[in-house]
Design brief:
The chain is built from two helices and two strands; from the N terminus they run E-E-H-H. By secondary structure, it is mostly helical. It has a domain of 47 residues. The protein has a two-stranded antiparallel sheet with strand order 1-2. The radius of gyration is 24 Å and the shape is rod-shaped.
């Protein structure tokens, strides 16, 4: 009798060669890059008064630092 293998190979669900595991492993870095890109754009646009008034002043923790006086 042949010994049983220690690792069982099971077929994975996939769509055109893209498995659920590949999607899961690539979403984490993609989410990190998305957050980084969004914060970079907000930092670059923080000098624009409309961005300060409409976006940054309404942020939960940093909003008090970006209050714009209305004339």
């Amino acid at each position: 009798m042949a010994p049983k293998p220690h690792v069982l190979i099971k077929p994975q669900l996939n769509y055109r060669g893209i498995s659920v595991e590949k999607v899961r492993l690539s979403l984490t870095p993609a989410a990190r890059w998305g957050v980084f890109a969004g914060l970079t754009v907000l930092f670059a646009a923080s000098g624009i008064p409309l961005v300060k008034k409409d976006v940054l002043s309404k942020a939960p923790f940093i909003g008090k630092n970006f209050k714009v006086e209305e004339n």
